[in-house]
Design goal:
Rossmann fold, globular, alpha/beta, 2 domains, seven-stranded mixed β-sheet, 14% strand, 297 residues, two-stranded antiparallel ribbon
Length: 297
């Protein structure tokens, strides 16, 4: 009976998501590994800049330099482990949240397909909307949250703390074209994001700032998808002083990684530190203690 359980679960999965997605699931398992290079040492400023994910800076740095790796960087095991791991189930949950705010315009599908042309990400079919990466559905849900809370982003100077490969910025740039977009992250990630946005011809002015030593910036809106809550406290203090507190608006998806492992601020502490900030639930909830910090609504 025990041996039948995996088969039974697979049958249920196929009934729910279809044979096409079974094929996609098998294709998605084809990932490659990357060896750590001394050329891209970790700086221990965050989870993705530490021994925990030591090959992440290497992957980003090599993908920025090497076209062969760039063409498939989103199918690297370390990229999937670090940030490109959103499931098909979560993807459907994100779509449900997006639809609560209105219809699904054709431009959503067009932009998601465009962003997925680079990197060979894991993709699933989300009928009737299209076939794309569940991670991009998370970015799209964040975008609809921003539109709900702050309306148009066209006249904003936006700062993002922790940028992944530049997917969130690219999605916003293609859909809403803000005045400028400033990236804060470690140097190899900045180089990858610069190449990614260039390859996609994302319109707008992009500014690249070293996240290991965040210098001051002026913005209308600060956003961060988990990254701020995965920094050590010293770096968080620098961001608070130079980036977060000067910003009149913000949207930070928060988890407890830094609080538990790097001595970072707790959610309660940040709410006290950031004036007029509010705690919103993370929907769909991807972690028991996750939440969204919003201010300037």
């Amino acid at each position: 009976m025990t041996n039948m359980r995996p088969l039974f679960r697979l049958v249920i999965w196929i009934a729910k998501y279809g044979l096409i997605n079974l094929k996609n699931r098998l294709v998605n398992k084809k990932m490659f590994d990357i060896q750590v290079s001394n050329e891209f040492p970790v700086g221990n400023s965050s989870i993705t800049d530490s021994e925990i994910l030591s090959s992440y800076p290497t992957l980003c740095g090599l993908a920025a330099m090497n076209s062969e790796i760039f063409e498939k960087f989103r199918s690297a095991q370390i990229m999937v482990k670090a940030l490109d791991h959103v499931s098909i189930e979560e993807g459907h949950d994100y779509i449900a949240e997006i639809l609560k705010r209105g219809t699904w315009p054709e431009k959503f599908t067009k932009v998601l397909v465009e962003l997925d042309k680079i990197g060979k990400p894991k993709k699933f079919r989300f009928k009737p909307y299209g076939t794309f990466s569940p991670t991009l559905l998370r970015y799209l849900k964040v975008y609809t949250d921003l539109m709900k809370n702050f309306e148009s982003l066209k006249n904003f100077h936006i700062v993002e703390i922790g940028i992944g490969f530049g997917g969130q910025a690219s999605l916003i740039g293609l859909l809403d074209k803000p005045l400028s977009y400033t990236f804060y992250d470690i140097p190899p990630v900045l180089e990858l994001a610069q190449k990614y946005t260039n390859e996609l011809n994302v319109p707008g002015k992009f500014i690249f700032m070293d996240g290991r030593d965040p210098k001051p910036s002026n913005s209308d809106l600060v956003i961060s998808n988990y990254a701020f809550s995965e920094l050590n406290r010293d770096i968080q203090d620098q961001y608070l002083k130079n980036v977060v507190l000067p910003a009149p608006r913000g949207y930070i998806t928060w988890n407890n990684y830094s609080t538990d492992t790097l001595g970072g601020y707790s959610l309660a502490e940040l709410i006290r530190i950031i004036p007029n900030s509010e705690i919103h639930p993370e929907i769909p909830n991807t972690g028991e203690r996750n939440a969204i910090i919003v201010w300037g609504i």
